[in-house]
Amino acid sequence: MIFHPGIMALLLGSGLTASMLCYSTYQGMRIIRSWDINSGSEHQLELERRTYLISTLMSYAMGFQLLSLFLFIYTADTLSHLFIGAMCAAGSLKVNGLGYPTLILKVISCLLAGLWLIINSTDNKAHDYPLIRTKYWLLFLITPCLIGETIVQALYLLSLKPNIITSCCAVIFSTDNNTFLSDLITLPVSLSQTVFFLSAPITMALGLYVCLKGKGAVLFSIASLSHFIISIAALISFISIYFYELPTHHCPFCILHQEYGYVGYFLYVALLVSAIPGMGTGVIYPFRRIASLRSIIPTVQKKLAMVSIISTAVFVLIAGYGILASNLSMEAY
Amino acid sequence: MTIQRLVAGRQDLIPTDYIDPIKQIRGVQSVEPRLWGYYYDALSGANYTIMINAALEDRIGEIIIGSGVSRRGAEGMPSGEMRENDILPFKTYDGSILPLKIKGLLPFTSELVSADLILMSETDFRKLFPIASGHATDLILTVRNTKELSTIASKITQLYPDTRPILRDEILRTYEASFDWRGGVIMMVLSGALCAFVILAWDKATGLSGEEKREIGILKAVGWETTDILLMKFWEGAAVSLASFFIGVLLAYLHIFVGSAILFEPVLKGWSVLYPNFRLTPYISVYQIATLFFLTVVPYTVITIIPSWRSATIDPDSVMRG
Amino acid sequence: MIRLHDIRKVFNANKPNEFVAIDDINLSIDFRRTTALTGPSGSGKTTLLSILGCMARPTSGRITLKDREVTSLPERFLTEIRRETFGIIFQQFNLIKGLTSLENVMIPAYPNGEKFALLNKRAMALLDMLDLAGKADSKVEWLSGGEAQRTAIARALINNPAIIIADEPTAHLDTNLSRDFMEIMRRLKNEGKTILIASHDPMVYKSDVIDQIVEMRDGKIVSSGNSP
Fold first, then answer.
1. Within an 8 Å CB–CB cutoff, is residue A194 touching chain C?
2. Rounded Cα–Cα distance for residues C9 and C18 (Å)
């Protein structure tokens, strides 16, 4: 095991987040068991106080999870020189079979935590906590995901040994391998560009429809999710090469480096900020019939859709600027 | 790439006739023999690294020394260091004394790598150590294309199975791992301090003074909601932890770059007789600060969540009942 | 109009030290009237006041405020209603030490997110109305008894509430200050405010400012009638 402070910080952070979530789930179960909003008994008042604790814990968990996502990539990047063949995070993550799964689980945990917070804040807007049971049952979905991520991350980090031979991003994200990633890259740039530049306005248009007419939330949230995945694929396939000004450099992690102005952070944050509210509009849709939420949900959906649209636009603008301002021209590709 | 010869698992002298066949390998630019070794000076108790230098080829009897050597060799001397034209006596392998004159000092700024180094001519070297001609300590190899290094290394081991090629990358990695390990040891030690800190934070946060309880009760009574109090507590915690984090980082920066890490020096530099004196170049790494943040502010925040929630959920009518 | 139906409040339920503070309370409070709650200590006045002022939830029973049921509203909504509708003056004044009187007056309005400059002006106007303008920047520890009381009143008025609640307001005051207090209450009543005072001080409940007297004993209402 490598005694690196970054590794210890990640293990500590994930451990703390996982325990916060376990505690929240446990408290949630206690609340569901004896919740009665119409009672004024001391027990009920105590339960209502506990809901604040769970909200606070989940908000912090979400914050830590987001930070640890970037810290994880940063650590993988810093450790890359200990592995032969690795030049950035992409190589470190490939060292054993657990690196990329950890990353994917982290992203999923972030998305789930964000969606839970949306449900939580919607529930709090109503007068009688209509979604109290739903949201605490949902914790049963999120907590295992986060515990799984903590375990997989720990296994990955603890089994890292220097001098292991791995591949660098140029090889992983190259056209020769027979992997899904290389299929992505061998897609002609024009195709992936078309898909991305179609998906973005369609998603934004659906969002606008939600804002103006208050309908079509489910469609919009599906579009948000698919646009999230398409955007990441687009980043790997054609957007990153413009930032690197190198047609063969497809790595999604190197754009987080200082020499590219840390533009990767802006892009990824914009992606998350457009995906989570976008999906949130569809997630709260099933609850629109509940009496106390009837007037609240449309307003919430409009706000979420607005945030998502703006963020999608920001992403497209940054990517577009990168493409136009780049010295690279992909005419004959 | 360095090529050593191993006999029974230990480094042995390498025959110089290995050179030509290795030069034939495609991609090899040059192969040079190196003569160097360790000399134990009984007088000062220090180990010096002795190396031959082509520039001193004709200057028999003269040596160039590093600053660590000059300091150590001058133990008990009024000047505190050896200077040009001073004589440094060496005991050769057959017991006779070989006096060599100091004709130059290696620059102070290269201390980190040259503190214990002595450069001399090949003739003097062979007088000192019984290395027969036709042998060298090891070989230095340069290649045209760095990507070919591993292929060439395996070709060499095929050609001469008793050799061990060492890539410079590997040396760097080993050093890094060693430092990382030492850093990790310090972190383990400090983790005790971190635990104590966390416990103290918990104690302080849970032990709400009567005065503070009263104040929060008043705020709740006049119309502040639990969320408002939690927000206030959040800002309080943020101010405290960010301010102390900043002060801590500042003090650490001063300690290391101005005070040369006095407190941790012994553990990190290791045990030796000759220590290089060097100044660390100031350097701020965002990554290190982020990691520190994660290791300190995060546990502090987590440990104060429950106590601040408890204080924020005081009943609004508590001041009326109280 | 505040209406209480069969209100009951129990502390430490199901424990050996279970205590029924108030029981079987049925009460109507009309707007623009001044009501006094009287009774010996331990009679449940304070508990009833805290329930009337939406500071506590009853164990059972129903409360309606302006024809809106508020019994089982979660704390965050109850607090918002309390902030807008009620202004509370405590027995011990309960001003926050270390802050000036102006800052103390502004505190109940912070959660509303109002622009600071406007809030400041309003607070100064209130202090002015109560002849405290000169003491605006003094720390509350340095105020005299009468000044502290008036600061507490100003604080209760900052959100322009319709109902003022006062819990034993004259308990720590001498005769003159008690009289001053009732005069201020008269002024507020003439401005159209509803006032609820809990007090066992005859200077309060025998005053002609009071329209209705509710007498309590052992957690139950003994009599509630108009003041003669």
1. no
2. 11
